[in-house]
Design goal:
This protein has 623 residues and is mainly beta. The chain is globular. The relative contact order is 0.11. Bound molecules: beta-D-fructofuranose. Beta-D-fructofuranose (FRU) is lined by residues 143-144, 160, 171, 200-201, 224, 265-266, 317-318, 383-384.
Amino acid sequence: MKNNLSKFGLGILAVTTIAACQQQKSNINIEHYGDTLTVLKITNPEKYLILPVQESCNEGKVMLYTGNPADMAMDVRLAIDSTDYYVPFKISEGTDEVIVKVRNVPADAFCWKDLNVSDTFEVKNTDYYRPLYHHTPLYGWMNDANGLVYKDGEYHLYFQYNPYGSKWGNMHWGHSVSKDLVHWEHLAPAIARDTLGHIFSGSTVVDKFNSAGYGKDAIIAFYTSASDEHGQIQCMAYSLDNGRTYTKYEKNPILTPFDGLKDFRDPKVFWYEPSQKWYMIVSADKNMRFYSSENLKDWTYLSQFGEGYGVQPNQFECPDFIQLPVDGDKNNMKWVMIVNINPGCMFGGSATEYFIGEFDGKEFKCDNDKQVSKWLDFGKDHYATVCFSNTGDRIIAVPWMSNWQYANVTPIRQHRGANALPRELSLYTKDGEIYMAANAVKETEALRKETKSFDNISLNGEKVVNDIVSNNEGAFEIEMDITPNNAQTAGFDIMNSKGEKVKIYLDMQSKRIIMDRTESGLTEFGEKAEPHFKENHDRRKTESVNYINDFALGTWAPLSLCEGKTYHLDIFVDKCSVEIFVDGGRIAMTNLVFPTEVYNSLRLYSEGGEAEFTNVNIHKLGL
Ligand code: FRU
């Protein structure tokens, strides 16, 4: 990144040392008060103070000082020894002088020599592993997609965003929009961290009845403010410019936990037609709590669901609540509660469960026994999945493509975090049981740039196909039908010339589809578990993680979810991720991989008998 940002680097401004503890760099005057406070006075400032970040450093506090009690310090890992990358910190809109106060960064830190001011900030990609067609932030850290809403032809994707570094912190709602769920335009963050706390996950609705009084069709956002001082409280903000900017409700918070719960967050709001009311679900430790409201501001507690359900005992996060027809039959609608749990994933860390049942306007009753767990995705990098509001009959979900076990230390610098492909959800029945399918949205077909089709292959042995796409940038889709016949194992390795590979196969003895990334490329990174919450999340601070075992593994799903005989596989590879959709999403499996060279060949094989590979198509993908 440094090269591309050389215009912000040393040398652009003259450095004059005017006192032992005071340096001046052109229009930046730096005064240190010991190691705890540094005051920067910047005359005729440009738009941004360009901050040098070193990821391994502790966070300092950087605040644009105006004397207003609403001044908010942001946590930035300012460089102590050397700079890993830079982040822009907005300081001015044509002011003559600004004051920036920095706390907890030593006076002899490297950052003071590497600070700069500029009207621009270079965002050209510098990350080898940046996906080509998945949504990523331009720079900085991203976790959960949240506040998803469709309005006036635009899909709004807000997300948990740190604009001041590529590790978790300073939660803002970042913002991107798309007309087709595939091409995303980056917009400025919509809601910034403030003195009530981090802006945690939540949801948005289009206020079609003007219930909140800000005008018909205002977008109303609900989020959790999280801080040590105030705990986790639900807040509201409204947008009158199609989701670009939000005004926070002056009487926030709108909801606090009646029992002082520490983990009380991620409000999901939806309209419930039979009661003619708005409903909110809030994750409340190991439950989801339901509330209702007529004006979107005053909320009445109704009930809670969850204690003891699914994999136990786990923290419930990021709820969603949707209604879908079973097997497409609109006379047979079911409610589904999406519950993201951390930890609890079959393969460690975070994952998404769902519960199917009935809702009477007050309580949710699950059709299954408490111990039944149903998974929306069988990979290890699928979390905080929630759905767009206002999409009519279509229910479209967006998963964050990482896992809290290692999200903060993946081998990425400029941006850290990507969203998995948007998925369309539907309900299907198998052996008398209802399940939810998650299939890549049909809009992804627009990504296909070039297709290679192969003749049907009958195998008892192996066949290697090289150069699966031309001018390979690591972004492609493989479609095929596999009929295992009498094979014990049938599948394929997606490989590169270094022998790194993702192994995907049907194991007909255990009746599983398996994706194994143990030899996929880089599988060891990070040193120790990084707590992603500084406030209110001691739980994560005690978690100790061995990354080697946590990343290098195979994940599997039961083939009993499919009808059998022939399995249709649709596989999306994008630089550092592999997503599998089997039989229209009856099985979805999402995993990150870090090959040190793009995968460019396929070794198809069948062991212990013959298998058929038919309708094999490989599409090169791009925007
Ligand atoms: C889920 C989550 C949410 C919270 C957010 C904070 O990944 O833990 O519960 O709102 O991340 O960034």
